[in-house]
Specification:
single chain, 337 residues, D-Maltodextrin-Binding Protein, domain 2, 2 domains, six-stranded mixed beta sheet, five-stranded mixed beta sheet, disordered N terminus
Length: 337
């Protein structure tokens, strides 16, 4: 005979199984306590795969959020840098891991460009990932070596126009967010210059400071301290509005280059088919983490703006930007080396 307590346990197991099945209406949104209690997630450390080098803008955001999110989840979060091929190596790694919520991809807006850049990706940007939320938006800042002597964006543009194909500009890799921002600016300004892709932001910054590259749209979170220390000259920000961290610095739009602005975001993804209750819990705890005053203050000091989005809205953003970026890549003639 089945007792009342046994019946309750069976019901709980059935509800948890349904929550994990991903069926509409049966996720953690309806049964959060049941799903969490039954699943016990997380039971082990999480891994944040960052497909860029340590010290890059995406890496700094991932570490800042991860340090506090692990307290919310009650498990350590390990940041695993897997740079290379414009962020596709790390993305492919995550796409191929078990959909159990223990491996999370922290990627940038460059994630949506790769579908148009790579013909043989080992994953599908739309089908193989579930977007969790954006973590922050941060402007790219147009930087040069102080020794170059550029006084303004207009000064840089005038000199490049005067000697076409004799200048160069850096990016953190083909198709990266820094590359897309640079191409939007180059097209708007009508510049002819050579693109120099690097393995990551730190490597590009080193060569800009050394004068080996003329300019770079660097993530502000990575470049701000170097700007404040006088090691880099900031000419403008590539976002649609000025940065609170450098309020005196104009945008490239204000400098007169229409259509040159670019929205650089950093967001979280998990492999597709990750159970709904895990997706819901991860989203919920991440948003709670982003509301912490000390984290918000830290990100603002770094030049980033906290910007969590609901899952559905983030998924729509990824779809829309993938189409828009594909058009830009075609117009700019961006090709893999």
């Amino acid at each position: 005979m089945t007792t009342a307590s046994e019946s309750r346990r069976q019901a709980l197991r059935q509800l948890a199984a349904l929550a994990g099945s991903g069926l509409p209406g049966l996720g953690a949104g309806l049964w959060p306590g049941t799903a969490r209690a039954e699943a016990g997630w997380p039971r082990q450390p999480l891994r944040f795969v960052v497909p860029f080098t340590a010290g890059s803008g995406t890496d700094v955001i991932a570490r800042s959020v991860g340090e506090r999110l692990e307290k919310m989840l009650g498990q350590p979060i390990i940041v695993d840098n897997r740079p290379g091929a414009g962020g596709t190596l790390g993305a492919a790694l995550v796409a191929g891991t078990p959909a159990d919520g223990y491996t999370v991809l922290v990627h940038s807006a460059g994630h949506v460009a790769n579908a148009a850049l790579y013909q043989t990706l080992k994953y599908d940007t739309q089908k193989d990932f579930t977007p969790i939320t954006t973590l922050a938006t941060l402007p790219n800042v147009l930087v040069t070596a102080p020794a170059k002597g550029y006084k303004s964006v207009q000064d840089l543009v005038a000199k490049v126009r005067a000697k076409p194909d004799t200048f160069n500009y850096a990016s953190a890799g083909n198709g990266s967010a820094t590359h897309i921002n640079a191409e939007k600016f180059r097209l708007s300004a009508g510049l002819q210059a050579t693109h120099v892709p690097y393995r990551g932001t730190p490597e590009a910054l080193n060569d800009v400071m050394g004068g080996r590259v003329d300019w770079f749209f660097a993530p502000l979170v990575s470049a701000l301290s170097l700007i404040n220390d006088g090691k880099l000259q900031a000419l403008a920000v590539g976002s649609a509005k000025r940065s609170a961290a450098l309020p005196q610095l104009p945008t490239t739009l204000e400098a007169g280059f229409a259509g040159s602005d670019y929205s650089f975001w950093v967001g979280m993804f998990v492999p597709a088919r990750t159970p709904a209750y895990i997706v819901s819990r991860l989203h919920e705890e991440t948003v709670r983490t982003l509301e912490l005053p000390e984290l918000r203050a830290r990100l603002v000091r770094l030049g980033a703006d906290v910007a969590p989005l609901p899952q559905a809205q983030f998924a729509s953003l990824v779809r829309d930007e993938q189409l828009q970026t594909a058009s830009l890549i075609k117009a700019a003639g961006i090709r893999l080396d």
